[in-house]
Specification:
7 helices, alpha/beta, 7-stranded mixed sheet, 21% strand, Spore Coat Polysaccharide Biosynthesis Protein SpsA, Chain A
Length: 193
């Protein structure tokens, strides 16, 4: 069963002040490549030299999608990122954010296991259950069985897949984790480690 990762990295980095992908994307891609058979990277149409600039090597099965409407919001990037995945034979996918490189590989492997064991349709979302700030908060990345591909392919705007998660009811499974990386979205330079 192929469970792949779609890494959304077509945002504008407005809060960061510069292109944060230069600082984060190589580390994010590396951790996802360690855990997943296939990784799809969603970039802006103008990112022609970004992968070579960051020394990111794609493996066989990995690919890059250029989200033509990325400037209109995350939903457009997500829609572009899932296009054609049913034809590639993905039974499940994990939607990841390019600015969240601190998620542990072990957490990703647990997410893959949970998706593989799930009865479709299922969404698996990590929830931080460690000590301190953030206890009980939902995090990223979020996994979806392939049943959600048609809905993910029609997303627009900047909300991403939030509405699908909200409407999931009993199809939503929680993955409890003490991995603070599921909460750390590096949107300001001071959050870099």
């Amino acid at each position: 069963m192929t469970v792949g990762a779609v890494i959304l990295a077509a945002g504008q980095s407005r809060r960061f002040g510069s292109d944060k992908r230069v600082h984060l994307l190589a580390a994010t891609v590396a951790v996802y490549q360690a855990a997943f058979e296939e990784v799809r990277l969603v970039l802006r149409p103008t990112d022609t030299d970004l992968l070579s600039q960051l020394d990111i090597t794609l493996r066989s099965g990995d690919d890059v999608v250029r989200a033509q409407d990325a400037h209109l919001g995350m939903g457009h990037s997500l829609s572009a990122g899932v296009e054609g995945l049913a034809d590639k034979g993905w039974q499940s996918l994990v939607i990841a954010l390019g600015d969240m490189p601190y998620v542990r590989e072990a957490t990703l492997r647990l997410l893959i296991e949970r998706l593989a064991a799930a009865t479709p349709p299922t969404i698996v979302r990590p929830v931080y259950t460690g000590t301190g700030v953030g206890n009980g908060e939902a995090g990223q990345p979020v996994g979806f069985t392939a049943d959600y591909l048609p809905k993910l392919a029609t997303l627009t705007g900047d909300a991403g897949a939030r509405a699908l998660i909200r409407e999931a009811n009993t199809a939503l499974i929680t993955l409890e984790t003490d991995d603070t990386g599921v909460l750390i979205d590096v949107d300001r330079p001071e959050l870099l480690r």
